[in-house]
Amino acid sequence: MLIFFLDLLMQCQYASRHFPDLVYHLFSQSLRVAFMRR
Asked: Its domain of life (predicted)?
């Protein structure tokens, strides 16, 4: 149980560290899709 909690904590730290990159990636992909549909 404790190991699971620590793993979750590490994943949260990793996600918060890489969250801006993820948002930027999703944003650029959605922009590309929007441009392709025109």
From this structure: Eukaryota
**What is the token pair recorded at 19?**
């969250």
Cα–Cα distance, 5 to 16 (Å, whole number): 16
The SS3 of residue 38 is coil
The C-alpha atoms of residue 18 and residue 11 are separated, in whole angstroms, by 10
> For every one of its 38 residues, what pLDDT tens digit does the chain have, with 9 covering 90 and above?
788 888 988 988 888 888 888 889 999 999 998 888 87
Give me the amino acid identity at 16.
S
Distance separating alpha carbons of residues 38 and 19, to the nearest angstrom: 29
